[in-house]
Amino acid sequence: QxxxxxxxxxxxxxxxxxRLSCVVSGSILSLNVLxxxxxxxxxxxxxxADITSNGEITYGDSVKGRFSISRDNAKxxxxxxxxxxxxxxxxxxYCKALDVFGAYWGQGTQVTVSS
Length: 115
Prior knowledge:
Layout: E1 2-7, E2 10-12, E3 18-26, E4 34-39, E5 46-51, E6 57-59, E7 67-72, E8 77-82, E9 91-99, E10 102-105, E11 109-113
Parallel strand pairs: 2-11
Antiparallel strand pairs: 1-3, 3-8, 4-5, 4-9, 5-6, 7-8, 9-10, 9-11
């Protein structure tokens, strides 16, 4: 069994910053890609950023230059630093982990950007 647990969401004013954390535990084998996705009501889940075990990073177009992803392989953790937050960044943010057996999702953490 695999557990994916996110933390760090909350309410922030436009222009502010937040840091999301995600820790993966359980029966993981060869953890490869760790990433963050987000979803708003009525829309498809979209990629925010992901990072491979070799450090290759992909960012969604809407967050390039504002968000930064990093990982700690020893802790099987991934982090998302979000700067310059905009109201359109409001969403539920999900952590996704990929190993040789498949994909695992967390329950999500709400990020709300509002004045």
